[in-house]
Amino acid sequence: MAAEPDLSADTRRLNTKKQTLDDAYAAPANFLEIDVCNPETHGFGKKRYSDYEVRMRTNLPVFKLKESSVRRRYSDFEWLRTELERDSKIVVPPLPGKAWKRQLPFRGDDGIFEEDFIEERRQGLEAFVNRVAGHPLAQNERCLHMFLQEPVIDKNYVPGKVRNT
Amino acid sequence: MSFLFGSNAEIDIALDGQASRKQAEIKTEDGKKEKLYLYYDGESVTGKVNITLKGKKMEHQGIKIEFIGQIELYYDRGNHHEFTSLVKELARPGELTQSTTYDFDFVQVEKPYESYTGANVRLRYFLRVTIAKRLTDVTREMDIIVHTLSQYPEMNNSIKMEVGIEDCLHIEFEYNKSKYHLKDVIVGKIYFLLVRIKIKHMELAIIKRETTGSGPNTFNENETIAKYEIMDGAPVRGESIPIRLFLAGYDLTPTMRDINKKFSVRYYLNLVLVDEEERRYFKQQEITLWRKPDKGKKSTGFVYHGPLQSGPQPPET
């Protein structure tokens, strides 16, 4: 039903607390940047594998280190995803594909070590880790912190939550 | 308005004072809008029934007019729940030899609820004339609309609350009232206390929730009546975002709570924050909507309904 608005209503803004200049111009409290970059392929023949640098900068208090850099391979991301699916309450986003076809023999190209495939995978892994690390309900999982900030992943760790530092 | 042509009579209902009576619009079941005469609780419903004979004469088993208020649940069409039913006998069984007009007068009729057409339920008021015949009765119905009016509530506290996710997001939201009339303005603000997530934008929506059934058979139908963005970009601690939402532009009804124990229509403000990964954080808050009398409307003789009650208050003197 169309109607005329009540023009006598008081529509003035409510009183607000003034924001301090410190708050207005300080670095935002939500700074979190994770890059997945610098892919490298190691080893020879059947033992070849690629890994990536996972570099993180943040000011979120939940992370012990404000800057960290570790190297991780695809199977490490798979491990992280499995842990999060089991322990956290979030719907864990998918990883970029496993690329089984590229691992079959008799390909004309270098399979999973092709440059553009590695780049495509790098982008997918970067999107995955940013999506997960920014999630309030996954941010305090110990597996995530170990993945991002420990040089080596200890698969015998005790799963659980990290408390705020 | 449904009617059956009898073999030899046509019924027409004319309300008194049609020229000066206001009309209001209501949705029909198929979504179209219908204009009907508007009545309030306590008003008398009076008029004339014109019966036009097609043939030379008509035998009948009695002519009556009823004033009915009923609730129809769409999933249970056979059962109409009549909460108001008045009847006046217009003619005893006999024979009509010429077209006839009968007066009717339902005095100070109680109309406790507002007319409502919803997704799963309908509440309507109508007059029904019935000419009883041996084989098939001849009937004619005429719907009217009823609005329930309220006065300014004595108490109308603002809604102010702090909500959030621990260590990630804390906000304080405030809406200037808890009870708004249908042409009111919602004035409020959102104050950010802690922002550790990357917010992309914030929006405010009005949600209408129609509840039918009870217990295990309760069914809620949600409809987003309005939605608009109140903030674009990432806020930091200490920022206040103002809210101003004019209700007159939207298709709203008063809040209806547990009407005749059959259904409810309630309204909620839904505040939604969306972060850069499209995750949504929301807080729903119920508001009470009520209908104010139009300016210049004579207030005598009408029965007022308190905004929170499901029944009427005594009439104004």
Automatic annotation (TrEMBL), chain A:
It is found in: Cytoplasm; Golgi apparatus membrane; Prevacuolar compartment membrane. It comes from the Eukaryota. Its main location: cytoplasm. Residues 30-154 form the PX domain. SMART domains: PX. Keywords: Cytoplasm, Golgi apparatus, Lipid-binding, Membrane, Protein transport, Transport. It is a peripheral membrane protein. InterPro entries: PX_dom (IPR001683), PX_dom_sf (IPR036871), Sorting_Nexin (IPR051074). PROSITE patterns: PX. Pfam families: PX. SUPFAM superfamilies: PX domain. Required for retention of late Golgi membrane proteins. Component of the retrieval machinery that functions by direct interaction with the cytosolic tails of certain TGN membrane proteins during the sorting/budding process at the prevacuolar compartment. Binds phosphatidylinositol 3-phosphate (PtdIns(P3)). Belongs to the sorting nexin family. This is Sorting nexin-3. It comes from Saccoglossus kowalevskii. The lineage of its organism: Eukaryota, Metazoa, Hemichordata, Enteropneusta, Harrimaniidae.
TrEMBL record, chain B:
Residues 296-317 are annotated as: Disordered. InterPro entries: Arrestin-like_C, Ig_E-set, Vps26-related. Gene3D superfamilies: 2.60.40.640. Pfam families: Vps26 (PF03643). Belongs to the VPS26 family. PANTHER family: VACUOLAR PROTEIN SORTING 26 RELATED. This is Vacuolar protein sorting-associated protein 26B-like. It comes from Saccoglossus kowalevskii (Acorn worm).
